[in-house]
Amino acid sequence: MLRVEDLVVEFPAGKGRRVHAVSGVSFDVARGETLGIVGESGCGKSTTARALMQLPAPLSGSIRLDGVEMTSLRGEKLRETRRRLQMIFQDPISSLNPRRKVRDIVAEGPRVWGEGADRVDEMLEAVGLDPVTAAGRRPHEFSGGQCQRICIARALVLRPEVVICDEPVSALDVSVQAQILGLLEDLKERYRLTLVFIAHDLAVVKNISDRVLVMYLGKICELAPGETLVNRPAHPYTRALLASIPGGRLALPPADQLIKGEPPSPVWPPSGCRFRTRCPKARARCAEEEPVVRPVADGQWVACHFPEIDGV
Ligand SMILES: Nc1ncnc2c1ncn2[C@@H]1O[C@H](COP(=O)(O)OP(=O)(O)O)[C@@H](O)[C@H]1O
Ligand SMILES: [Mg+2]
Asked: Among 38, 128, 213, 224, which is disulfide-ready with 229 (CB 3.0 to 4.6 Å)?
């Protein structure tokens, strides 16, 4: 349904320098699939998500929705196509206008499109809010989890086909996280949605996703079905992410296998493999030659010269 090829997004960083936020990322998303995107803060997840919406349009690369090249659309055509994708963000409270009532917040999208508010009640009900008592209140009267439900209603009222969830539960209490994740799964079934689900925490992503894309410093490390990624992670970075999940199935590797320190600046990404400066397996070749994303097993793609492919 969605095909992303060689996506590049850069930002000016002063003095002619550039932030290499996303550097040649390719993936596709099947209709009805949930694709997880995971990686440390700053690795380019949100930039990738916004590029899908053309907000802003990428520097280069192709994004096709049902075969339609979104990067070359303009004006009304872009607006119509973009509507088919909706986003949900990390901080639900700040993404809601505090002065408006819930009913008006959810009805705003349809109003802009010249449509009536007749789906508002259905949407509030679908996200688990009582239309009678909730619609007339303002955001500050709700908890963080309830505000995220309002944001979800606001996104779904436009009948999107793809919902891009950018860390939708990262700001919520753990008990509320599970409720929102469960709600998203229910809504996905009910409205036949395709989900792109972003999180910095692999523990959150692995259960909800069919396939998971692991990113590091603007590049893809690994792409695999959730099960495969958890049971047979091939990229040293994926293995480190998994090892850091408390109670995870992967036995904790020796201390020197856990990634240390901060990722390098995306203004000066390392030569060759971008992960090599923190990688326990790095050798000379990793600095000289960039690893391409290649298949190592059924549905499993890895960008590493020395992947772990004999199991855990
Ligand atoms: N508007 C912007 N201007 C300059 N740099 C940006 C901008 N948006 C993101 N970045 C930089 O791009 C990189 C990727 O950011 P982002 O996509 O937000 O990462 P993530 O969502 O994975 O935390 C970071 O280094 C971030 O500082
Ligand atoms: Mg982000």
From this structure: 224
Residue to mutate, 15, 20, 47, ligand 1, most ligand atoms under 8 Å from C-beta: 47
Q: What are the residue ranges spanned by the domains of the chain? A: 2-84+160-302
The residue-averaged pLDDT of 39-48 equals: 96
Q: What is the pTM of this model?
A: 0.95
Here the tokens at position 275 are: 């992960």
Q: For the segment 91-119, what is each residue's pLDDT rounded down to a tens digit?
A: 999 999 999 999 999 999 999 999 999 99
Question: Is the pLDDT assigned to residue 267 strictly greater than 80?
Answer: yes
Mutate to test the pocket of ligand 1, among 7, 11, 213 (most ligand atoms within 8 A of CB): 11
Distance 140 CA to ligand 2 centre (A): 24
Rounded Cα distance between 162 and 156, Å, is: 10
The radius of gyration of the chain from alpha carbons, rounded to an integer in Å, stands at 20
The alpha carbon of 269 and the centre of ligand 1 are apart by a number of angstroms equal to 14
The kind and range of the H/E element at 238 are: helix 236-243
Mean pLDDT computed over every residue of the chain: 93
Per-residue pLDDT tens over the stretch 127-159: 999 999 999 999 999 999 999 999 999 999 999
Class of 2-84+160-302 in CATH:
alpha beta
DSSP 3-state helix, strand, coil percentages of the chain (rounded to 5)? 35, 25, 45
